[in-house]
Queue: 2 jobs
Job 1
Amino acid sequence: MIAARCPTQETCAMITIALPDQHIHDRLAPQLPDVNVIVWGPADGAPPVHIDLALLGYLGASGGLASFAGMDVAALQSQSLGYDGVETRLPAGITYCNAIGVHEASTAELAVGMIISEQRGFPQHFAHQQAGIWDQHEQPGVAGTTVVIVGAGGVGNQIADKLAPFDANVVRVARTNRSDARGAVQSMDALPALLAKADIVAIAVPLSDETTGLVDASFLEAMKPGALLVNVSRGKIVDTDALVAAASTGHVRAALDVTEPEPLPSNHPLWSTPGVTITPHIGGATSAMHARVDAVMREQARRLVAGEPLAYVVIDGR
């Protein structure tokens, strides 16, 4: 580790938090009066003092983790919830925290918006608007449908909560069979039978070795004909070629906020596959995230000043 360089003894005695740009500094620094707050990133070279916690930028930050190697930084705070690939990129000795509580509500909001949009035919109506076509016909809607949510963590539970007023039959599925305050959670063993009955299947599991390729040809084949697949998790959970094949025949429809590959090349067949709607990984990208990131950083700062362990630790580098 690089030795800390202290402009003043008072600065050295304080906890130091580094922020990635001046805009975030201007917003967040007044909220952290008991902390030495600086603007710094590894592109600036060695930090001027020991960094107790550095806030990463939002988009693409995990790809630059290796640049923290050799830097006098104790911990990194992500602005993202997912942490796939971090373990292989994070330099030894650095703790990594994810952003629990920042994106769950917004990601679930998008998932429910996609469900309503697809079930009420918004893409078709928009196309008809451009062509000046008045085509009034019945759509499946959401009320009375069965929605299977694969994943009962933060995002999955938020989707379930937001669907509650829409009079749908919501079934959550996770690794193990259990009950919580929201009711029953079915195990993955029950998934094949549930897929045959589901009108909508929402994917809200983190990417792991276990979930990579989970939605493959057999998964799609087991889905009810005409059912809607919604993925707001990670693109690699869905076999893209299998989805193109299944949607091209009309067997399934899909609304995707994430794809594999990502970004999706402009000539990729998924763009033009019938029954598929794509948004460019915007699940958490709303103005609501800034106040939630601030809340995470205030709590982390409080913990550091109090000598308590950091929250939201995914990888403990100590």
Job 2
Amino acid sequence: MTPRPSRPVRLLASALTAGALLITSACSDDGDGGSGSADVTGSPSADSPAAASGAALTEAGAQAALVTEADLEDDWSKVTDAATWRDKMLVGTVDVADFLTAKADAADCQKLLDSLYAEDLLGKPSGASALTGFEQGDSRLLYQVAAYDRAALDDSFTWLKSLPTECDSFTVTDGKDKRTVEVIETSLPEEGDARQGLRVTVQGTVDGAPTTLTLDVAAVRVGSDALTVTAGGPDGDESDSTKQAAKLGTQRLKDVQAGKTPSADPGEQD
């Protein structure tokens, strides 16, 4: 793992060497209900009353809105170095020849990889932000919450929704090796004002050994604030934990927006 200087908001990844753990996220379309599409065209009345109140998310509020080990399924353990996670399998240049509308679609796919690596999938926050990370076996989960410019946030969700069509399958090269990337839409619980789920699979080699990295990505908007979840690794399929984090994390964010203290017991949440 090759740390880089942390940014205000981080997503998930780690430099890989032979024998090192692959990290980042997996998203699986296991069809357990909910919608994977981003509802960015709804009327303002569809937004949460708490978010519409005008109260800005504070740094303390962002920290309080972060999920905990109690919110996650299975045996996730909290870590302290989540802001330094990176994955070199996400580094490379998209092959423009893979696209019929080469420049436009290739640019969106390049943006996807770059954003996953740089940990700014929804763009730069306009206000408070916080992140936390967890490990379980060979998988890692990174959770972020932040305040954004509303118009820019809507644009980000529109872009995310387009990726399963524009970037369903493409090739990336890092100057030495080629990797294939596949992107599909996945379902998420009906939480928040807009949501988008993706599964990003990267197949290639690490030090000559065949490697597959599966990324599970979830984004949920609540007013002008949003959360992102990235979970997975070489074993893939961390969709259940991702959906759990998105569902309970959305409730925590709503509680913070309403001036409440999020419950320490996820069983007490609706």
